[in-house]
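Example 3.2
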Amino acid sequence: MDTAKLFGLILFGVIIALTMYVTYLASKKTSGTDDFYAAGRSLTGFQNGLAISGDYLSAASFLGIAGLVALYGYDGFMYSIGWLMGYLIILYVIAEPFRNSGTFTVADVISYRLNERPVRTAGAFVTMAITMFYMIAQLVGAGAIINLLVGIPYEIALIIVGILMMIYVSLGGMLATSWVQIIKAVLLMATMLIMLALIAVVFKFDLSALFGDAIDKGGENFLRPGNLYNDPIDLLSLGITHILGPAGLSHLLVRFFTVPTAQAARSSVIWGMVLIGTFYFIIALIGFAAAAVVGPQAIQAVDPGGNMAAPLLGQMLGGGAGSFGGELFMAGISAVAFATIVAVVAGLVITGAGVFAHDIYTNVIKKGEVDPHKQFRVARITSIVIGVTSIILGILAKNFNVAQLVTHAFAIGAAANLPVIIFSIYWRRFNTTGAVASMLTGSLTTLVLIGIGPTMMGDAAIFPLTNPGIVSIPAGFLAAVIGSLLTKPENKDKMFAEMSVRSHTGIGAE
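Structure, written as tokens:
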């Protein structure tokens, strides 16, 4: 084994050892459902802001967006802008009332004043659909990057990551997951800043030179729309999905339950936005630099989805392929990408485990009458089942771009979760029928259109748009309105008033 690969393995080992130690410490403090699902509500606003950024800045952001920008220029850059803008909706509309209205899961909020069993069941289906798309994207990135760095077969790499995430979640719960995400956020931002500094030196602080070289390698239309999405409606659909999607992502929303107050929830969103905004500005430049230095053709030769653009750029910045510095720098970037993946995957697993153990098992099957320790055990077992399922699906999705896979999760969140969350908090007339209709219509419409669209069927696609959000998101909102207005009110004005006071003041939330 050459020195670079040995160094890469050492870095991987250090990251695994550090995160395992954190999990060990957290396991000593994780003894009940409050600790497992919400980290005992012990995180500060700044800590949760770091964890939010660590959760949100996934393989899709680090590997996928860099690859899309490097391959498709302007169209790839749209991913970077859209995923940041979505946090404005979270900050101004969702964060504080959501945190005040629930306990552990999204279904806690949307079922607060509705009939629990149908709402929790539909909500569980939506959350699991989002979790699976997001999870597959992370595992595809993990397999690709471990295979590139140390030569471990893609399938074996997925199994390694799957085992790690099951250990993190089943032993340490949300507390361990949060601290793994915080560590990952610090490592990722440090790596981004180092890469930005090297890019600035290479191009002598001249953006014109960078974009000029990118055009030379990518073609004269590289900085114009249409390289990835020829249809402007598809690009519009992508923008709508990115802006509305983050506010419906279950694994991000549950992070607001880990802080002790509503003020801390707002603070965590602001800190998260600062870190996320900085990251997306830098990752766009990294993508353009990868196009200029490595070239789209060379990137696709290594990985058809473009997911290895950032590591390959790191290799070139360190001295080029075959050089000691280049191989070491690529190993370092790959190790950080690995930390990125395991942190996000752990957050997804704990969200999925919470949905089944808390929503389905405890509140639907057992009707709320279950021993907390039993629920705790069910959550741990569920995390293992989700991990195994995700590994199998990740193997089947080997050649997809991870950013595009995550966009489908955004579409489900915006079409199925966001309408129900907003109407549950702000609309008195909203009822159970409207909630279930919205969640099922939004999620199923999105899944069907993805299945018959270009992502799955290629040139034989029946539905012409890669991004179904422009159809499925309005369908979700419309189903909520029609379902509520065509059925009788549930006469739960008192519950709505209680929820309104609680969501906006925090009274009763602590």
